[in-house]
Amino acid sequence: MGYRVVATEDIDEVADRPCELRRIGSAGEVENFALNYFRAEPGEQAPLAYHYHTEQEEAFYVLSGTLFVETPEETFEVPEGSTFVADPESPHRAHNPEDAADAVELLAIGAPAVSGDAEAYDPDDE
């Protein structure tokens, strides 16, 4: 059996990101899914870029604020307490708009926990 408590505030922020990112899953030695905490101020995006995953299903659970997720078809508005899910091969860009009143905090959960399956997406290439 194995158990652990991971204090998010004790996890170092990932450098060179467009917003605050703390890799909870890595710090907690989680092997089967990725778990990341994001805090995006107005005008910041949460993941590094517009992207999709080749294998991983990704979900964003909004802890506070409102998250906006751009897709090729539409932009979703995800309120506090709601979850946005992107299937593999589904391009998306999560962000907090410039005109937002507050920061948005969210947990990003991805499974399976694979590295290197994120691919950049350029909507102008369509």
Question: Can you walk me through this structure?
Answer:
With 126 residues, the chain is mainly β. The chain has a single domain (23-125), classed as Jelly Rolls. It is 3% helix and 39% strand. It has one helix at 24-27, and strands spanning 20-22, 34-40, 51-53, 57-64, 66-70, 75-79, 83-86, 93-95, 104-111, 118-120. The strands form three sheets. A five-stranded antiparallel beta sheet has the order 1-2-9-4-7. Strands 6-5-8 form a three-stranded antiparallel beta sheet, with no helix packed on it. A two-stranded antiparallel sheet has the order 3-10. β5 (66-70) and β6 (75-79) form a beta hairpin. The longest helix has 4 residues, at 24-27. The N and C termini lie far apart (49 Å).
Short description:
This protein is mostly beta strands and 126 residues long. It is built from 1 helix and 10 strands, in the order βαβββββββββ. Strands 1-2-9-4-7 form a 5-stranded antiparallel β-sheet.
